Amino acid sequence: AQPVIVAIDGPSGTGKSSTSKAVAAQLGLSYLDTGAQYRAITWWMVTNGIDIDDPSAIAAVAGKPEIVSGTDPSAPAITVDGVDVSGPIRTHDVTSKVSAVSAVAEVRARITELQRSIAVGAARGIVVEGRDIGTTVLPDADLKIFLTATPEARAARRSGELRGVDVHSTREALLKRDAADSSRKTSPLAKAGDAVEVDTTDLTLSQVVECVVTLVEEKR
Ligand code: C5P
């Protein structure tokens, strides 16, 4: 079979990661978490004392960190300059800073190039999740999915993942990040014209996965 490329975009907490990993595992495809790449470069900026409020300072060093993404859906590790940052990229600190770093055009150019080379190299095909995959990174993807859910459902899922954090503050932080990601100039979070929108509010994970797997199979 020809390699199949699936783009899964949408705001935070819509189930992109869980869905993408499960679809890739079920179909024997590679998997790429592009949010993890933006988190990894943000972690590097924070660790190296770069001023996150200064886009030109970020742009000047955007090419420095070497980011390597694992593409196995059952263990998608990510390293920066050889250091496994799978844990550190999920901290509250990195989460609160990632939108500012990912809005810098030089950062996006660099990471987009990396994403395209990974997608092209996936022999059996790949599921790529993010915010601008269907619109910018892989506009010729075989299938584009745009996941949505109500802010309440998304906040409830996130606070379930981050035990101990209350739903209200999770909801505020999540909406703030989505507003920043949707309003930036370079490649904002957006639904591609030819994407299939799936509202996951009242669906279980396995229902969403089944829906996407069926759509992929129809394309093959
Ligand atoms: O998906 P995740 O929540 O890990 O993404 C973290 C951040 O990375 C997003 O809030 C966004 O700022 C950035 N991102 C992006 N483009 C992508 C994927 C993620 O700008 N394709």
Automatic annotation (TrEMBL):
Chief location: cytoplasm
Record keywords, A-Z: ATP-binding, Cytoplasm, Kinase, Nucleotide-binding, Transferase
Record field: catalytic activity: dCMP + ATP = dCDP + ADP; CMP + ATP = CDP + ADP
Source taxon at top rank: Bacteria
EC number: 2.7.4.25
Residues reported to bind ATP: 10-18
Matches recorded under HAMAP family: Cytidyl_kinase_type1
Pfam family, one: Cytidylate_kin
GO molecular function: kinase activity
Protein name: Cytidylate kinase
Residue ranges of every copy of the Cytidylate kinase domain listed in the record: 6-217
Annotated compartments: Cytoplasm
Gene encoding the protein: cmk
Family annotation (InterPro entries): Cytidylate_kin, Cytidylate_kinase_dom, P-loop_NTPase
Family to which this protein belongs: Belongs to the cytidylate kinase family. Type 1 subfamily.
